[in-house]
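As described in the Methods, two query proteins were run sequentially through the folding procedure within a single session, without resetting any intermediate state between them. The first query and its resulting structure tokens are shown here.
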Amino acid sequence: METTSSSEMIKKEIFIACRPETLFSFFTDPDKLVRWMGRNVLLDPSIGGKFRIDLNGSDIALGEYKEITPNEKVVMTWGWERSKVVPPGSSTVEFKLIPKDNGTLLEFTHYDLPATEIADHVKGWSHFLPRIQMVAEAGEAGRVPSSEQV
């Protein structure tokens, strides 16, 4: 996985051995999203629809879907419940799904983060993006043990 960051942005790329159509559902189907991120997930995957991801019982990400291009791209606002530094809606995450070599190159970008938050978010996304790779490549039967949850 390749990672770059600046004072306001994180970019990562990871190759996932599944079709974009398969990978896309891991951003819009709550039963699939919870397999790679969070303990409890509420999603309304429509433009302006809200999401709530309880990562570990105390850290809760909130935001809304801003752009959805089936099998190609998902853009959401991102922030943390009860955070004054990165409150809900204060930053944006973008997932681009690019067909490549019988799989998908996932291009991830997290925009508009305060410089003080870059390191923690790099750590978080460095944990979660390999998890989506693992569950998407494992197929429907793949499950990630809950003990690996952050």
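Immediately afterward, the second query was submitted; its sequence and tokens are:
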Amino acid sequence: MSRDTQLKERWEQLVNILSNQFSQGEDLDLDAIIYLIGVQELGKVHNEFKKDEKLNLMHIAICRLLEPYGFYEFEFFDEDGWPHYKVKEELPPLKAGEQSVLMKEAIVNYFLEREVIE
């Protein structure tokens, strides 16, 4: 099975699992899944978040997702329990489609580590 085919199948499996758990029948999009990862990483799953906090949650998720690729490194948790990362290497310029594939791959790997999917 090609790497692209495997990624596509795992992505669809993950979208189905998360959509069934967190959505009322609609498939979650990439941004929604990134947001969920940010909430998971923060560890405050039952909180209501303001708009700027939601953006920060997505930033946390992106940093965490791209950490294994060498782009970010975890630094510390602040007094409110929010994780902070530093940039280790700038992301290369990517086209929208390439960016999407990178994020989907990183998300699939994140959930493979947590044994949510196989």
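The first strand starts at residue 72 and ends at 77. We note this only descriptively and draw no conclusion about the first query from it.
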